[in-house]
Design brief:
The protein has about 55 residues and is α+β, with helices and mostly antiparallel strands. The protein has one domain. It is built from 1 helix and 2 strands. Strands 1-2 form a two-stranded antiparallel sheet. The longest helix has 13 residues. Bound molecules: zinc ion. Zinc ion binds next to helix 1.
Length: about 55
């Protein structure tokens, strides 16, 4: 069992379940996780530019 880890910056959550402030995104069957900070910085890209998720 491992804690939730941000897909962008690698920040590890305190628990296995991501905090409510984190954002989960399902892309191509892969579950991506963004911490609160990354979610805030990338919310525009996530909602507006799907291409940015395919790095
Ligand atoms: Zn992050």
């Amino acid at each position: 069992m491992s804690n939730a880890i941000c897909s962008l910056c690698g920040q590890e959550a305190d628990t296995e379940e991501p905090p409510l402030t984190w954002v989960t995104s399902l892309e191509n069957g892969r579950k991506l996780l963004y911490c609160d900070r990354c979610a805030r910085e990338n919310v525009r890209g996530i909602e507006g530019k799907l291409d940015s998720l395919w790095w």
